Amino acid sequence: MEFISDGALAIEVWGHRCAGNGSSIWEVDSLHAKTRTLHDRWNEVTRRIEMWISILELNELGEYAAVELHQAKDVNTGGIFQLRQEEDLNCVRERWSDALIKRREYLDEQIKKVSNKTEKTEDDVEREAQLVEQWVGLTEERNAVLVPAPGSGIPGAPADWIPPPGMETHIPVLFLDLNADDLSANEQLVGPHASGVNSILPKEHGSQFFYLPIIKHSDDEVSATASWDSSVHDSVHLNRVTPQNERIYLIVKTTVQLSHPAAMELVLRK
To answer: Domain Kinesin-like, which positions (predicted)?
Structure first.
């Protein structure tokens, strides 16, 4: 009493979004409300990384300058870039679906217990209605997992934005699979076990990759410049002028070392 007479007492209320009599407060916009809730929950555990690549050539002044990136309507890349990683998205969906199945089994068990009672109190009737509402909500959430709405923020949702020049429309998903308690990794996610190692691109055929020596780091941003000589690939397509009706696809793989939320490596591709 002495504390609250002079100060402020913070009170947090925890519960379910329900009117209290078993009826849902979501009416016409219930689907949108649930989608927003899922979007908020995913925002808490999602971080976004943008990866930009440019190719530098010697100009007339003898200085290295970025080659102009031309947009093309007939390709789905940010120019002549292809980026599409879907292995981790399938892993996220499988883990999410497994969690929903366990939750549904629990709700089935609880609903059966309440419905089998010969005499139900008002609390039993209210609890049964809430359990059924949660069961229906699981079905809607499962649909959101498999067929997320465009721009909903749920992993796998179709792109619903206009990217800046040079950026792909598609946003890939890398699933880190960290422990919920301490955000540590279940195993050492480095080297051949780094996240994204197997997220190959459609035109990535397992041909040899070449390590590029890094010759310059930037102090004010996370960027680096590497030296590249196209002749090391020993490819006839790179040793001649490319015809107008042909394209050459180059894949750049970058390993990023993270210290938070866990010590691990990410492999990004463009």
So the answer is: 220-259
